[in-house]
Amino acid sequence: MHDMIDIPSCNAAVVRCMNLSGRDYELVSQTAREIIVRKQEITRKSRRERMAAASRANRMSRDESFSAFAQISLDDAKRKKRSASLSKTSAGSESDLMSNAASDNETSDSNPSFKRYVGNIYLDRHNSITRYQSYSNIDEATDEILDAHTWESLFDSTSETSRTTAIETLFGATGVDTYMIPNAQPEPCACEPEVMRVWLDDTIHLFAPSLGHAVAALPDATANKPKKLHFIISYHRLVGRNDTDIRAAAEAFVTGQYLAGALKCEGLEYVVVTLLALDAKPHHFAFKRTSEDSTVEGFCEMSSARGFWPHIADQMEVERLALFRVECVGVLSSRSHHRHTNFVTPSEYTVGVFLAEEPNVKPGHKQPQRDRRVFLRAAVYNKDLLFENSPSEGTPRRTALGSVTMDSELARTTIGGSSSGVHDDSVFADVLGSLELAVGRHRTAANHVFINLVGADAEDDLPSVEAAIASFIHTAFNDLKRLKVACVEVRVGTGSVIAMNTSGLRFKITKTLDCAARDVHPLLNKIQRKRMACQNLSSTYVYDIPEIFANVLAEINPGVGDIIDLMELIFDPRTRALVCSDRAPGLNEVGMVCWRVKLATTEYPKGREIILVANDITHMSGSLSPPEDSVYRAAFDLAVAEGLPCVYISSNSGARIGLDEAVKAAFRVKWVDDDDVSKGFKYIYLSEDDYEILSAKGRVKAKRIVYRDEIHYALTDVCGGQSVECLQGSGEIAAATSRAYKHTVTMAYVTGRSVGIGAYCSRLCQRVVQHVDAPLILTGASALNKVLGREVYTSNSQIGGPKVMGANGVSHLTVPDDVHGVKNILQWLSYVPSRRGAPLPCVPCVDPVRRYVTFNPPSSPHDPRELLHSFFDTDSFMEVMPDWGRTVITGRARLGGVPIGAVAVETRTVDKTIPADPAFASAQIAEESQAGQVWFPDSAFKTAQAIGDMNREGLPLIIFANWRGFAGGLRDMYGEVLKYGAYIVDALREYKQPVFVYIPQGGELRGGAWVVIDSSINPEQMEFYAAEGAKGGVLEPEGIVDIKFRRQDLLSTMKRTIPGGIGDSHEDEAKKKALMPTFKQLAVHFAALHDTPGVMLHKKAIKAVIPWETSREFFALRLRARLAEERIKSAIIARGGSSADFPRLLASVSNVIEQVVAEEFGVVVPETHADVEAMLATINRDD
């Protein structure tokens, strides 16, 4: 059964489930996320177990020889030899412990370091039998090792040495070497010898075999005035009790009668209680003094430190979470060692995941944009695990979702389709896995990762740590962004490395050598809260949008790309125009923000200007009211006035709705029956006083009614609040957007959900880039469900997501995030002149103009994108609307460095899917096959729209014509194919730049398809060409033969062409029947001879026959010539000349046009040439 399961398909399905967005899919998405992470943990654990088994087998073979040697008497020479052998056996990880394990004047019995080493050897090889000469037999050695490492051994009353060794091992397992710290060795308490005391830094640790022993040892401990007091108590009643009861017992111990009056010692701020028992997990509870006065006994629990040894909590710096209400939602220790409840087990690192929430200001008060974050804290004891992020060939790697792959494999991708270089054995692997689970369960943002590299030295290790963090950020950036991680901080001794991502766009890494102060993590400020709100909506805060542009520009063109100037524009109600402002980010009082931006791009290193206008979704949910409409309308009007491209960043909730809150709070009700209000009401009214106040401001209209000597003002109209004025403003901005599209380049990037007028304005920009999680809708799913009276739609994306808007042509491009959205906008702008009427932005081209087109179109169906990539400059083609009208391909490219629009034809059959509307129970998904080389209603509309867009962008156009005609069936005619075909004619007739129609090699153009793109539609701009082997005619040869070369014609041809002729005898009739297929082929061939490029040229239907191999060179040079002609024509008209003078004047400057063509590269600006200026001057003299 397992063999029948398609594992890759299952993995892909789980990833798709994980990537579902929206509240309705939260449970499904989180379950899928847990499946993925757990699967990778199992894979990783299995791998590590195999590695550990191999390591144990290798060490076992070495132990066999070592055990024989260990039986030799421990004279001085033999002890030296044993020390060397043990050092070798330890295989590196324990060598530092073994270096002091034995000396010439010490035996192993009296050497705690040696016993500590034996314990570590046991823990690493708990399936092997270890023998040492210092024990009389194997059983004694094994018992001693076990006793030294169970929780009970911490309180062993029979052997102080055993207690000391166990305590040292406990601290050593978490990176604390008591031998390296002065006065930190375990020792009995003077007043209670059975209690061991350890002084570490400002903390006293008391190891007590019972609660009573702990209380008895307290005077000795408090006499030293510690800052923190830690009780480690053997508490056998742990077994079988729930966590709540255990916590209550610990709290009673600290705050109850046990320690009454005993904790009033100077300087004591913290009390930690650890309860231990065999067969039960350790329980840790930390309490902090509630008053700065040390004479006050009040203590309250620190939830952030619950569950951790206090020195580990210190290492993770959990006290820095003091401003939050904290809950630990995950604990993880390294898995390279086998763990057991009853043993002290070494760990390479410990990870704690905390959900931190801002406390409510008032009980029951819900704070808007509340600070809610995940803090991941890790204490790492083996610094090499941080440096494992540097990949090496052949080493297993952990991907972004935790999967393991090999560098040597050709396809290093996760089941999610991405690749990551995070090493499987790196602590970062567990960081990502833990964050996946925590962030998936809790809606948080601005999450924080803190790693303390315990025992590291700032001066020695900071450079390596900085490199490791940079590598981690680089390889896992997309995951960190998706998990909304704002900061990755690594403590390195007294130094630190901090990677901050304040805007969600990029991490900035800084390092410092002195960061001894541990400042608490502050609550988010106003700007950060707004960023968090936007991140929760998978969007970007409005004032961070310019930074995205700057980052993308720098990435596209390092050292050149940047924002040269950024000026915010605010609306002046007196002049009703935009004025410059230098206010700080976040001070906007309306939900619409506008900038004039000067971008340094590859095409314009000195800068090009655009108008950038964006919704602020954190202001009234991005809703639009008259103040927002004023800013938007003024921005588009400014773009039209100056001919600048205008980019709209859309994220809104449509027109603003609202009620008059003052009237809402003041109105009264005249009930039909005051004793039974269920009978309804007669009217609502205002008292005389309220009416006098509210009517004076024009907020209400009312009818005066006298009821029982009391005056009621029954409300007829409430004029306050947000109402039809918002709809009026929506109409104004819709008109402004439509007007701007006609006169300049308009683009919209839908970064967040856009509703109603927000969706219309995006569409009216005509060039739409849509974020995958940003629906374009008129009415929300919940509102539609209420209208329909049942739960029909599950999310807004189901109605207006990219799968809908990309498939119907509303959205031109879809992107996974805002960075890719801005990249697409900037790439689109790279084809567009800097302002209306400016020269096309030409760039140096490394792809030679005079090269052959290497792709040879086959006669069978093929991908026409290969044709486009071979014809245009390398990697310059940008396709738009790929999911709509798929029998036509549209986009922009460069030819010899010059931007040009392109329309090509899909030769393969494609499938069109029409989704079923769940609002109709009988609706079903419809699948429709569309043949290649045919215009269908959608592809005809797509062609017309693309041509119109390119015309308004000022681009020349080339059409690779290869159509057999229009689809003319009932469904297509009902789908208005005729109307959309006519739109193509309209678009070409209005085209104001050069248009080339070229039938490529093997292509054909028939019937109505020829008609709608014939050069006679716009003879001033259109030129028609064909390649050798191209075909064109009214019908295909087979169709013409059926009509014009019928059976009688075929028989006549037989009689005329067969040598010796053919008669009407019975034998000749059989011969005619046998020869009929041959003569049909002959007829088809004859008909095809009417469709050749030679015929087209002879009848002047085309201008020339251009071989396919040299077509790139021809059109690149012809394009420069035509652009030069059009630039000169525009200059002539601007000087007052007439179109009748074009032939004469162009002939006078033909040398300039030839020079522009000969240059092959560069901006086409012939009007600046001296000969052209002189020619233009003659126009003024003639006038």
From TrEMBL:
Residues 81-111 are annotated as: Disordered. One of its GO terms (biological process) is fatty acid biosynthetic process. Gene3D superfamilies: 2-enoyl-CoA Hydratase, Chain A, domain 1, Biotin dependent carboxylase carboxyltransferase. Coiled coil: none annotated. It comes from Ostreococcus sp. 'lucimarinus'. The lineage of its organism: Eukaryota, Viridiplantae, Chlorophyta, Mamiellophyceae, Mamiellales. Residues 848-1134 form the CoA carboxyltransferase C-terminal domain. This is Acetyl-CoA carboxylase. GO terms for molecular function: acetyl-CoA carboxylase activity; ATP binding. InterPro entries: ACCA (IPR049076), AcCoA_carboxyl_beta (IPR034733), AcCoA_COase_cen (IPR013537), ClpP/crotonase-like_dom_sf (IPR029045), COA_CT_C (IPR011763), COA_CT_N (IPR011762). PANTHER family: ACETYL-COA CARBOXYLASE, ACETYL-COA CARBOXYLASE, ISOFORM A. Residues 520-844 form the CoA carboxyltransferase N-terminal domain. PROSITE patterns: COA_CT_CTER, COA_CT_NTER. Residues 92-111 have a biased composition (Polar residues).
